[in-house]
Amino acid sequence: MERVQINQSVPNKYHRPEATYKSCSQSLPLDILWLPRSSFRPAEGELADCVLVVGVSRPKLAAALLSVTLLSLFLTFHVLYDSALYSIQAASMASVAHENRNILQNQQTNTRTINHPMSLRKRLKLPRPPRPVRRLPQALIIGVRKCGTRALLEMLYLHPMVQKASGEVHFFDRDENYALGLDWYRSKMPLSFKGQITIEKSPSYFVTPEVPERVRAMNSSVRLLLIVREPVTRAISDYTQLRSRATPSVPAHALAGLTPHLTPDAAKPFEHLAISPDGSINVAYRPIAISLYHAYMHRWLEVFPREQILVVNGDQLIEDPVPQLRRIEKFLGLEHKIGRKNFYFNETKGFYCLRNDTTDKCLRETKGRKHPRVDPAVVTKLRKFFVQHNQRFYDLVGEDLGWPED
């Protein structure tokens, strides 16, 4: 640092003797120099004798000070940058969560992807938001027909972690569908996010011989839901549905060619179909045959362990849905989310309807049909017939469902 030269030859009222200058000098490590104040500007009033002048004359010390200054500036900038980046990422994640909810609400009719500012993602390298995909089902409602399979599926759909196939796919029980392969089956599944459970239901799975092996070939750890009702009530409900399809506008001879279920017998009274002319139970009649649950259950237990099949009491599901749904949530490994707030009783229909945060929903008019009156003597006879068959079913599943015996 260039030292200031003091002209001592010129007398000045601000000039002080050299002795004063020397008395101001100090030996400090930073080469700090004390100079008389009068050397810089005229003094006004009473002034101190000396002025402090700081300078760095040593190269190593100057480099150290410069490094500390630059490091401080870098750390300050880094903190500000991290704060700004965190704010941008938080706003981005909030946007992604909003997009996810919109996709779930429109998944059946809208296959759009989640939009995101691509330039921002590339610049900041933000994580790619999750996208829904179509997955093979992790759980199946395999039956039984007319025991409440549709109601069960709709109730489970109240859970935010459940996605459902919109209709009965009939992949495993129809050869023409099964021949199309798993890619075709997957295409029929809904969009779902990681962690959600996809469920499909086709009631005829339970009674079709080839289905258990086919299901295991897809996923040996799949969870199976079997919903059953008291056998005689189920048979009458089955008959009621078949009869409703035999409308007067369709001739009886034409019904036989439509499906195996639409036969001229659908117009006969239930008693005439369930009881043979000789007074025995007509086990060949489809509604009666399907109610022999043990005849089909043993096939499933030959392929799947008992703990992978949950038997749901369809009668109790109609009377009080919540306890049965709690069992199912536990079976599927889901957090308990479905409660009494999700149901209200419909006096007109005579059963519970569904409610979520945005809407109320009852099953369509074809559900909950009023059953025709059946001769009580026939009902009693059928129940006595089913006693031994019900017991065989209880033994297979390890549970007594307590169905009436007369």
UniProtKB/TrEMBL annotation:
It holds the Pfam family Sulfotransfer_1. The keyword tRNA processing does not apply. It comes from the Eukaryota. InterPro entries: NST/OST, P-loop_NTPase, Sulfotransferase_dom. Keywords: Glycoprotein, Transferase. The keyword Lipid metabolism does not apply. Residues 137-389 form the Sulfotransferase domain. This is Sulfotransferase domain-containing protein. It comes from Iphiclides podalirius (scarce swallowtail).
